[in-house]
Amino acid sequence: MSDLLRRLRGRGWRLTSQRRVVAEVLDGDHVHLTADEVHLRAAARLPEISRATVYNTLGELVSLGEVLEVSTVGRAKRYDPNARRPHQHLVCSGCGTVRDVHPAGDALGDLPEEERFGFAVGAVEITYRGLCPGCARPGRGPGGL
């Protein structure tokens, strides 16, 4: 059983066949699929699953805090099932590939008190942007042109 399915079952979330297949599609490290990609993969396993069911299920998973919604500039949102392990994201500006990264240090602690402007900061989201190896090669991919 996947980690996401285990967490959902532990919460008592009703696992219909549609919800189960969406959770199974999202399972794994460095999984950052768009809703359309989730639907395509889910439909390969359960042909009758609708796009609306996938979108609704993703919305529920985000609301529950079991899946993170990752926004990338100018691209479709992606969904990350690694909501329990603190991490940041590395995004390719060329092709949109997203990877989980675990930088050393404490991003919240690195923000000086005078730069918090009285905010009670509870969370930090950092996105590193650059070109993946495929896009960085001359003549290869959107970023290597």
What report would you give on this structure?
The protein is α+β, with helices and mostly antiparallel strands and 145 residues long. The chain is 32% helix and 14% strand. It has helices spanning 3-10, 17-26, 35-45, 51-64, 133-136, and strands at residues 33-34, 68-70, 78-80, 88-92, 98-101, 127-130. The chain starts with a helix and ends in a 9-residue tail after the last helix.
What key phrases describe this protein's structure?
145 residues, alpha+beta, three-stranded antiparallel beta sheet, three-stranded mixed beta sheet, 32% helix, globular
Topology of helices and strands:
Blueprint (H helix, E strand, L loop, with lengths): L2 H8 L6 H10 L6 E2 H11 L5 H14 L3 E3 L7 E3 L7 E5 L5 E4 L25 E4 L2 H4 L9
Parallel strand pairs: 4-6
Antiparallel strand pairs: 1-3, 2-3, 4-5
Helix pairs in contact: 2-3, 3-4
The radius of gyration over CA amounts to 17 Å
| Low confidence ranges | none
What is the count of helical runs? 5
Encode the helix/strand succession as letters: HHEHHEEEEEH
How are the strands ordered across the major sheet? Answer: 1-3-2
